[in-house]
Structure formats: C-alpha cells, structure tokens
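Write out this protein's structure.
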Amino acid sequence: MSTRGPHDGHDPFAEARMEFLLTMRRRGIQDIRVLRALELVPREVFVEPEQEAHAYEDQALPIECGQTISQPYVVAAMTEALLLEPNHKVLEIGTGSGYQAAVLSHLTHEVVTVERYRTLAETAERRFAELGLDNITVIVGDGTLGAPDHAPFDRIIVTAAAPEIPQRLLEQLREGGIMVVPVGPVTGVQSLLRIRKRPKGEGIEQETLMQVRFVPLVAGKASAL
C-alpha cells in the first residue's frame, strides 16, 4: 500500500480537497480509512486538463474514449461497500482514468484492474507511476472475462453496468468475498449491488445499496484507441 500524499509543497487544490472531504462526510461516508485514501489521491491528476477546476466537484466528468471519471461520492460509496482489509487482493473492472484503482491502492495489498481501451490503460499506468503507486497491475483486456490468471480475488469492483450479475467474475471471487457491481439496463438507472459469495458453494447474498448510472460493461477489447 502506498502512503504517499498528493503533493509536495504548495497545493493549489488544498481548499477544494478539504471541502470535497467534508462533502463526502455529509453524504454519509464514515470509514476513516476510505476518507484518508480520498485525501491522498489527487483527483486533479485523473481528469482532463480542461476539467481540473472541476476535479473536486461531486460530479462525473468526461475523459478520453467517450468514458467518464465517476462521481466522487459513488467512488467513495463503492469503496466503502467493499469492506476492504489491508491484505486483500482486489479486481477492478473498468480502469478508466485510474482514479478508483488509485484510491483502492491506498487501502489494500494488491489491485488488478482491467481496461478495454489501451489508451486509457496506458494513461492510467503513467499516472500510477508518477504517484508511486506500485501495487496496481493494469491489464488491457475484456473486462467481462475478469483476470482469471490472477484469481481468486478477495474483492471485485465493477465500474460499468452489467445487465445481470456477471457469472465469470463471480467465479473468480473467493468464498466469503464481496463484489460491488451496478446491474441493470445499459441506458437509464441501475441498481448498485453488494454481493457476498457464501462458502461451500451455498450461493450468494445480495443487497441493493443505491441507484446509479454507469456506462455499459462491454465485451471484448476495443479495436481502436
């Protein structure tokens, strides 16, 4: 786990970051470790340059390849819902800007993240290197297939909407593990589910956490970009 802070010296985003953390608390994020991870990750690094002024606003922002960096509250809520421990291995589906993986990297031992767009994956890798986050492995691949070569995982987080619970990913989750995934139509509102895999093949438990809007989980690697 990295413990490096967001900036050395003057931080022009300090005030915005403080207000951002207060907003997360007001909206119900209670896990101190999650709040500390949000404080340590400089969100302005993960947005497009023209969006830097909006980096700490509680809204999704556009990134390359027609994708988005998720609303900070959703990132925080999904992270909190994982109930992470420092020794966990986590699979993220949908690297995007890399922001979610960076937050996870401060909370757990190992993060494996899968992205279908090579451009996004390579940009995220550069950002991780610049921030000294050396416990993240980026894979360019089909997120619907997960990362079987790295399985099993203690936790899985899916940052794109699936039409139903992804069975391929569930197979890669350890017994007793947790997966957080938005499930529902590719357009409109989806349900954010927390799924626990029961031991001894006894199925799953699931609960609905909130309503969300995510881009769809698409099979295959992108042919371009």
